[in-house]
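chain below, 109 aa
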Amino acid sequence: MPYLILILAVIAETIGTTALQASQQFTRLAPSVTVVVAYGISFFLLGWALKYMAVGVAYAIWSGLGIVLIAAIGYALFGQKLDLPALLGLSMILGGILIIHLFSQSAQH
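prediction:
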């Protein structure tokens, strides 16, 4: 259950960050409102996940998955190119998340 809550927090954060790009520096109302609401939901869910998970682990997963998803969305929706070093770095982030999830005993308290 904590991982489901955390994944929902990542999804909300990803929606908020995508809307942040679409808001054009908060000059468009609907995306700007979406940013505030999505980040609020994300932080609420992240806080809820912290009842069950260590803060360092939860934040590492939340931020790492958010980075990878935003990079993919930036590429797909906004035409932002990723070079080889960026792809390697994103791969290492995913690898770190997998190592935490599969092998760490610190993931839950």
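The chain has a mean pLDDT of 93. Helices lie at 2-22, 29-49, 55-78, 84-103.
thats it, cya
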